[in-house]
Design brief:
There is one protein chain. By secondary structure, the chain is mainly α. The protein is built from two helices and no strands. The protein has one domain. The radius of gyration is 19 Å and the shape is elongated.
């Protein structure tokens, strides 16, 4: 029983981690891709050009989805705290 609970907890932790980082990671990836394509098309190879748009995109994503992410992490924490007594069995 203990191993099953451990594996389920690890699987759930990885899934929660994936869902928690997606709102910040996806805008950064998409903005980087778009700006990279623009830089390749215009031959402007300035490394600092991508930083500010990515920063703004990630900040907006965190503002929009921060509550959902915090709720997800809070639910996961509650589930893990509730599972502590079962881990000793």
């Amino acid at each position: 029983m203990g191993e099953d609970l451990l594996y389920d907890s690890a699987r759930q932790a990885l899934w929660v981690l994936t869902l928690a980082v997606l709102p910040a990671l996806l805008p950064a990836l998409l903005i980087g891709l778009v700006i990279g394509l623009i830089q390749a098309a215009t031959s402007v190879q300035e490394a600092t050009l991508t930083f500010v748009p990515k920063l703004i995109g990630v900040a907006l994503a965190i503002l929009l989805f921060g509550g959902v992410t915090a709720g997800l992490l809070l639910d996961f924490t509650r589930d893990m705290m509730a599972a502590i007594p079962r881990m000793g069995r």
